[in-house]
Amino acid sequence: MTPKQxxxxxxxxxxxxxxxxxxxxxxxSRLFELDPTLRKLFxxxxxxxxxxxxxxxxxxxQSLARTDALRLGxxxxxxxxxxxxxxxxxxxxxxxxxxxxxGKGLGAAFTxxxxxxxxxxxxxxxxxxxxxxxLPA
Length: 137
Prior knowledge:
The chain is built from 6 helices and no strands. With 137 residues, the chain is mainly α. Helix 2 (20-34) packs across helix 3 (46-62).
C-alpha cells in the first residue's frame, strides 16, 4: 500500500466509525446474501460479532503504517479463522461484502480512489491471513 492509500483508508474509516453498528449490519447482510452457507460459520450473536469485526478493522486500519506488527496479529487471526472453517475463497466474498458495505455507508465519499485504497488494504490483510492459514501446523 502507498502512503496515500493508507491515508485514504484511515480518513474514510473515521467517517465509518460513527455508524459502525449499521456498517456491520450492512456487511453481514450482504455477506450472507452473497453466500448463505457462510452463516453457519457464525455461532454467536451477529450484533456481538459485528462489534468484534469493527474493533478488528479499527485496529488494522490504525496499524496499516506498521505492517510488521500488523502481520503478527493477522497471522494468528488467519490460523484461528481456518480452525473455524474459513477457506481461501471466503476471503473474496468478504471483500465484496466489505467494499459494498463501505460504499453504502460512505456514499459519495466512497470515490473510486477510496475504493481502490480499501481493496489494497483488504488484499494485504487477506493475503497475510490466508498465507498463515495455509502453513503446516
